[in-house]
Amino acid sequence: MGAVNSTSVELTPARPETSLSLGPTVEVFQITRSGIVQNESGPNGDEAHAWIDVVQPAEAEGLLAEVYAGIVSRAGSVANILGCQSLHPEALRDHNALYRTLMFGRGALSRLERESIAVAVSAANGCHY
User: Would you put residue 56 in left (φ > 0), alpha (ψ -120 to 50) or beta?
Assistant: First the structure.
């Protein structure tokens, strides 16, 4: 089991060679269809960050095209947080359905309260979403 504090998260699995530590120094992995490549820099040699293959809406087929069409019809475009799930259309479909239920479904919280919670959580996580 891992330890958590305000500056780092450390996961220690049974096999030490697969451990991951997130803290002041973060190991970065490039995730591709063919596997994971460790410690890659950005496309311009800038700070390293995760890379995920994404199927663009114009290239989508089948279920992914259907899911993208629904997203675009409601939001005007496919947000990066959704597009990064494009290699698994079922997960994207289900995640989008969950999001829509949580943010727009009936419940005790108003839409404004739900968005306020989302903004607060994103800010706490250092995420611009």
Answer: beta
